[in-house]
Each structure stands twice: as structure tokens, then as C-alpha cells.
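Researcher: Re-running this chain for the archive, since the previous output was lost when a drive failed. Same request as before.
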Amino acid sequence: MNVDAVQGEAGAGTTGVLRRLFTRDLVLIPVIIVVIIVGSFVSPGFLIPENLMNVLQQSSELSILVIAESIILLCGKFDLSLESTVGFAPMIAAWLMVSDTSIGGSGVGASGYTGIAVALAIGLLIGLINGLLIVKLRLNAFITTLAVLILLRGATLGTTNGQTLFNLPDSFLYLGSAKWLGVPVSIWIAGILYALAATVMRYHRFGRAIYAIGGNPEAARVAGIPVDRITIAVYVLGGGLAGLAGIMLTGRIASVMASQGQNTIFYVFAAAVIGGISLNGGQGRIIGALSGVILLGLLQNVLTLSQVAAFWIDAAYGAIILFALIVTRLTSEAPRDNCRGPDSAGYTSKDNPQRRCNISQREWARACGKCNTAERDRSSMKPVVKIAAEASEYPYGHPRTRKTYCAHPPTMCGRARAA
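Model: Regenerated C-alpha cells:
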């Protein structure tokens, strides 16, 4: 084989990957730079380290909720109840910790560490209930989580008769108030979680399975992916992260308000959508969602320093979401419905766009665990085929490598799109 040709194809594949990275995931970087420049002219105090650190700390709780919602959206589902979990989970924990019944406490006087465990457990339990209702009872995700949101909001108000709980143990407030190396702990936690989530979603089998389910759940089921189990796990993970965000928010404001988390879900969806997370599932990356969080945090700070009224800030968020949806639609690839996928032999044609699948056969092989004849029992596999791939179509393999993989049915990629 011609070495120069192989290197050229590999270089083209690398260029394609970089182009997709900057057009999808880092498209907000220029916008963020513009906002920073505008902020520096609006207020001389915008670029001081204390103000930027404050922006990051205030965005840390939102960023964790965005991780949770982004993973759920990538799985092709919704969860509106995250905002109520942010208030309900720490409220129950605070109710158990506050010993003064006159201000709405239970009188139990639980420790701060017990409160953290309770808040996290409640978040996980809410996520489990949502997952079971949606997966096992086949309820609509949007309506189900909306009902849970309303239920939890009422329970939060009813627990303390609408009062704010304070005088909480320092150990419970630690995650939202302490600093490591001069940086708030909440920022450290958010950064670590983003790095972990991005790595898992990009390289781990669990993350690839989420993309596959979000692209086409029935095809993922045929490919051997445990769709129901992973979907429930995603909801449980989202609930746990919402509980953690509630603990961090409580630590930052040193109290639990009855309205805590209210309307947060709008900002969560705004950050996820402008960060490139598709509401249809199966498309987007965690790094893009992070850029959405940073943009919203900086924008809110600039508008606040400009003394813009709060309702105009909300209007600006709505305009940003609409603009992001329009840009995403105009700059995206061909719609999923036009993707007919590989032919019956498992081949794709680069010359015919109608036959090109947005997620490659090899991607599906990665998602279901490299299902080749050497690693899986023949009785549990579909007939295998030889796949000859262009580097641009299969970025995870050597150009023109021929290897035996599981021959998934053509419908499997009918609605799937590369991450």
C-alpha cells in the first residue's frame, strides 16, 4: 500500500475530527471571548480575579445539573424534576439536622455527615423512581418528570411550612463554602466531574452505549445493549448529581430556602442546548455543555454589572436558546430521517449521501463491546460481514482496515448520529 496515500487519508481523517470538534463542541469559544471583551468595557471590575472566581463558583451548581441533564438528553430522555431535587434533597437533610422545631426543624439533630448521606440518597431514590416509571411503565418522560417536579416542590414547601432552615452544621456546608488552594471546593468538584463525565462518555463502554440508545433505542437493543438498565442508571445518576448540587448550593448560601432550585431547569436546558446537546438524543458532548455553562455565567455577570433588570436577563436567555437552535439547525449535517444506513451487506457508499450513516458500523461495534467472532459466542450474533472503511467514515480505525464485526441490521443507524 502506498505510504503517502495512507498518511494522506489519516491526515484527512484527523482534520475531519478537528473540524467537527471546533464546529460542534468549541463553537461557543469565540462568543465567550466576545462576552469577556464586552464585560471588560462595561465594568472595570469584571476581569478582577475575585469576580471571575465568583462567576465560576455561582456556576458550579448549575454545571453539575447540566452534566446530569446532558447525559439524560444524550440517552434520548428528559428530566425536569432535577430543579426540585436540588431543593427537596437538602431540605429533608436540613430538617433532620435542625434541632429547633420553632424554625421548622425536626428536633432530631442529625450530624452534617448524616445529612450529606441523606441528601445524596434522596437524589438517587428520586432518579430511580423516575427511571422505573419511564422505563418499566412506559410513561412519557416529559410529563412524568414534570409531575415529579410539582410533587417535590409542594413537598419541599410543606416540610417546613415554607420556612428557610439555617444554623446547619459546618460539615454539611463544607462542599459549598470551603476552599482548596484558594479555589472554592465547589469549583474543584465541578471540574473533576466534567473531566470524568467527558472521559466516560467519550471512551467508556457505558458512555458509548448512551449515545447508541439516544440515537436509536431499538437498534441498540438489537445490538445487545441493555437499554432499560442503562436508561434507569442514567436517571439514578442524574438524581444523585442533583442532590450533590443541592448540597453545594446550600453550603454556598448557608441555608436551605423553600424556593431553592426554582426555575433552575430553564437555565440547565439553556446551557445544554447552546452547548450542542441535542434534544433528540444521541448527539453532543459534555465539553460543549461546559462551554454553555461558562457562557451563561459570564453573560449573567455582565448584564448584572450593567445594571440590567433581572427579567431582561431571563429574556436574553430565551433569545440565546432560540438563536442556538437556529444555528444548530443551519450548521448541522443531513437530518437523521434521510440517513438510510449501510446496505444489506453492511457496506456504506461514500459516493451516495443517502446511503451514508451518521454513526459508523465500527462505532456500533465499539458500543456493543467489539462484537467480533473472537470475543462473542456465534449463537448470540448476527451474521458477520467484512467492512472496508474510509478514514472519514470510521475515525476509530486505521484507514481501509478490514476486520470482522457484528453485522447489525440496517435500521440500527437510521436515527443515529455520531457524538
